[in-house]
């Protein structure tokens, strides 16, 4: 940069440009920090340790992180840990509060309870019994926004075209407010456990017949799906459908992927017009290959699938 004096005003002119790969290396270093925070919820969370993960000076790293991710480092660390704990309490029956606290890096249950209530508006026990999904959604949205800013440029996997084999699924349909899907997920998890179709024994899919941002009030729908064998005929809680086989565009999404609208927009807005492909008459769907919080947020993997003609 070179200074140019004009009256009492000093402006800067660009004399050289950093190559794009330097910017990418910088983002990759920041992405590693986000991944490690999410992969190691019980790791030391002091500024010096986390800055060292990326090879940055602790004198500057808190500002670097906030400038890129839009929130202070320690808030991201705390929200990441509390979000994982909330997921365990809500969706993994039998999880004890003390176990969620320890897994989130809290040695004292009282400190965990205070932090949990401050961010989610309920005690851990109350959330486990009857979650306030609006508070949970707010935490999820904040984390996702910060994570996306740090990782989208370096973590987006290229779209692949694959042949998808048809799969028979049991469907429990969520209808209505998207924010209430957590209760439907809890019922679906209970049903899967009852029939022995838990993840590991049965594949997990979501089908999206509607767009939550444009659906009329009360008209939003999501299929919660588990693959089932030919003998299963459904019951009063689920029906049997087939996700048809055929050519599909597949985008791998890492992280919790609770809200897939951003990668869906990438497929529809960026990839599809440039691809020359035509869509088939079946909704966008996804397969949850590695489920959060059964694995860490950094290890979780969802494949977003767009059916092609």
Key traits:
309 residues; alpha+beta; Arc Repressor Mutant, subunit A; 8-stranded antiparallel beta sheet; 10 strands; 21% strand
Describe this structure in words.
44% of the residues lie in helices and 21% in strands. With 309 residues, the protein is an alpha+beta fold. It has two domains: 18-155, Orthogonal Bundle (Arc Repressor Mutant, subunit A); 160-307, Multidrug-efflux Transporter 1 Regulator Bmrr, Chain A (Alpha-Beta Barrel), CATH 3.20.80.10. The strands form two sheets. Strands 3-8-10-9-5-6-4-7 form an eight-stranded antiparallel β-sheet, with helices on one face. A two-stranded antiparallel sheet has the order 1-2. The model is unreliable at 1-13 (pLDDT under 50).
Summary of the model, kept short:
The chain is of the alpha+beta class and 309 residues long.
- Overall pLDDT metric: 87
Strand content: 15-25%
Q: Please write the CATH class name of the largest domain.
A: Alpha Beta
**Class from secondary-structure proportions:** alpha+beta
Indicate the low-confidence ranges by residue numbers: 1-13
General form = globular
Q: If classified by CATH, what would the architecture of the largest domain be?
A: Alpha-Beta Barrel
- Give the strand tally: 10
């Amino acid at each position: 940069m070179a200074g140019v004096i004009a009256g009492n005003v000093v402006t800067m002119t660009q004399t050289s440009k950093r190559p794009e790969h330097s910017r990418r290396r910088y983002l990759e270093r920041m992405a590693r920090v986000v991944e490690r925070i999410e992969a190691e919820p019980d790791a030391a969370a002091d500024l010096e340790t986390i800055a060292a993960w990326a090879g940055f000076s602790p004198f500057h790293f808190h500002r670097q992180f906030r400038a890129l991710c839009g929130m202070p480092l320690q808030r991201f660390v705390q929200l990441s840990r509390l979000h994982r704990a909330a997921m365990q309490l809500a969706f993994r029956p039998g999880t004890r509060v003390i176990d969620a606290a320890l897994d989130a890096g809290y040695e004292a249950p009282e400190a965990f309870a205070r932090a949990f209530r401050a961010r989610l508006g309920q005690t851990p026990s109350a959330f486990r019994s009857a979650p306030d999904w609006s508070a949970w959604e707010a935490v999820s949205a904040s984390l996702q926004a910060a994570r996306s800013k740090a990782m989208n440029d370096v973590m987006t996997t290229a779209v692949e075209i694959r042949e998808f084999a048809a799969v028979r699924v049991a469907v429990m349909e969520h209808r209505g407010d998207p924010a209430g899907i957590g209760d439907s997920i809890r019922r679906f998890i209970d049903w899967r456990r009852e029939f022995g179709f838990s993840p590991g024994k049965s594949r997990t899919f979501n089908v999206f017949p509607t767009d939550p941002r444009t659906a009329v009030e009360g008209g939003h729908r999501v299929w919660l799906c588990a693959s089932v064998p030919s003998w299963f005929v459904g019951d009063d809680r689920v029906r049997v459908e087939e996700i048809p086989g055929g050519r599909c565009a597949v985008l791998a999404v890492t992280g919790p992927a609770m809200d897939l609208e951003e990668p869906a927009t990438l497929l529809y807005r960026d990839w599809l017009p440039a691809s020359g492909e035509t869509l088939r008459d079946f909704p966008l769907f996804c397969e949850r290959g590695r489920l959060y919080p059964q694995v860490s947020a950094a290890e979780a993997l969802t494949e977003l699938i767009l059916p092609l003609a």
